[in-house]
Amino acid sequence: MQSNVQRNVHVIGAGISGLSVAVRLANAGYKVHVHEATQQAGGRCRSYFDAATNLTIDNGNHLLLSGNRHALAYARSIGTEAGLVGPGRAQFPFIDLATGKRWQLDLGDGRLPLWVFDKARRVPDTSLSDYLALSPLIWASPGKLVGDTIPCKGTLYDRLVQPLLLAALNVDPPEGSAGLAGAIVRETLLAGGQACRPLIAREGLSAVLVDPAVKLLQDKGASVQFGHELRALGMVGSNVSELKFGDEAIVLGPSDAVVMAVPPRAAASLLPGLKTPAKFRAIVNAHFRFDPPEGQPAILGVVGGLVEWLFAFPGRLSVTISNGDRLVDMPREELAQAIWRDICQAAGVEGDLPPWQIVRERRATFEATPEQNALRPGTVTAYKNLFLAGDWTDTGLPATIEGSVRSGDRAADRVLAMRQA
Ligand SMILES: Cc1cc2nc3c(=O)[nH]c(=O)nc-3n(C[C@H](O)[C@H](O)[C@H](O)COP(=O)(O)OP(=O)(O)OC[C@H]3O[C@@H](n4cnc5c(N)ncnc54)[C@H](O)[C@@H]3O)c2cc1C
After folding, report:
1. Is the pLDDT of residue 1 over 50?
2. Most ligand 1 atoms within 8 A of CB, residue of 46, 48, 57, 62 to mutate
3. Could you tell which of 21, 33, 45, 310 is best to mutate to test the pocket of ligand 1, judged by most ligand atoms within 8 Å of the CB?
4. Cβ distance 115 to 122 under 8 Å?
5. Residue 199 main-chain phi, psi, to 5 deg
6. Residues 232-272: tens digit of each pLDDT
7. Whose CA is nearest to atom 51 of ligand 1?
């Protein structure tokens, strides 16, 4: 039976998954309480002022695609969909630093991947049969390796498959889960250019994806508490009965729910016995205070160098390097110089190293291998009023914003279903 009493839901963690659950449930009339351990919302997707470059930068350049429907619906729900900007067509310029060759992949704007039939629009020096050889990936099982499913060599691999899967999986593609790679291919390349338009939060991740959500929550009467780390859960029978935050505890009512949207290590320590991915990979981002040259594309794919993607923002050039564990201990200045050399070649600019910042997120994503993917839990736990969210839960996708929001939506659905129970 439905009751008119306003139900409480406690969301632990104010990353994208936690914020997406919180927004959904606040809009559904719940009394939402968000508890975030740090002083800032956004988790692994946030902006901050950086004194070295004197700019507000993002912890990492985040790329969304127009087919990321959960992420776009989340942005719409907080009124910032227009803040995700990109070209009108799914066009991806590339450069190979080893040869200096430039090309543009043009995925068009349709619902079908018809571009593979057009020699002028596909990757240069590739044939239709190269693309057909990727088909085993489409419905591959998550337990299989990419390297055992498709050819991981050749021109198409070097110029498209490797950059795409490296960015999506954050592991060297052959060691990645073919099932996760297949999900990416189904939702992007196979869904035509309409699903592949690149989108960037040009005004910054926090301005577009985080702060407006916190404001909406506060306007709806939700509480968002920072520096409020959940230390332990109290259980009675098959329910969570208490949330313990150091010197303060919150006792839950019989119809209250909890969504834990924290990273896997925190979740495992709060819920002993929970199986979670335990291996992670780094992503390295470098930001340079430098006006992009005239005509520099917003996103440039780079192969044959250290840099993988070059992003142009007003007054700033930024790069992303995935699977970056090999770079986490490299001296910062040396790394900045090496990256700047690649940028000069890719963007056709020159000059001494401008003001720069390097952000190395050591645990950027769980390792998208079959082994780690098998450790991802679902939304439901052994406790009736406790649900999980996060990019590392079993979303069917690698660790992405789209996966985070999807996990948040699933958790919100479960909380809403409790009302009907
Ligand atoms: C450098 C980098 C680049 C990336 N690039 C892309 C990209 O291009 N495209 C894309 O789609 N995705 C990208 N991602 C992935 C994306 O950022 C993540 O998938 C997403 O932000 C994860 O959100 P989340 O809410 O699941 O987890 P998190 O962001 O980790 O949020 C968890 C929150 O829980 C809080 N917390 C932890 N313990 C507690 C506790 N005990 N009590 C209360 N709070 C707690 C944390 O402080 C944190 O705020 C990138 C990630 C990184 C790091």
Report:
1. no
2. 62
3. 45
4. yes
5. -130, 140
6. 999 999 999 999 998 899 999 999 999 999 999 999 999 99
7. 364
- Check residue 246 and give left, alpha or beta (phi > 0: left; psi -120 to 50: alpha): left
pLDDT the model gives residue 419 = 81
Length of the chain in terms of residues written = 421
**Per-position DSSP letters for 337-361, written without gaps between them:** HHHHHHHHHHHT---S--SEEEEEE
Cβ of residue 262 lying under 6 Å from some atom of ligand 1: yes
Amino acid identity, residue 375?
L
Separation of 9 CA from ligand 1 center, angstroms?
21
44 lines ligand 1 (CB under 6 A): yes
* Residue 156 pLDDT grade (very low, low, confident, very high; cuts 50, 70, 90): very high
Residue of 187, 83, 190 whose CA lies nearest to 134: 190
With contact defined as beta carbons under 8 Å apart, do 86 and 93 qualify?
no
Residue 34 confidence (pLDDT) above 60: yes
- Report pLDDT for 247: 86
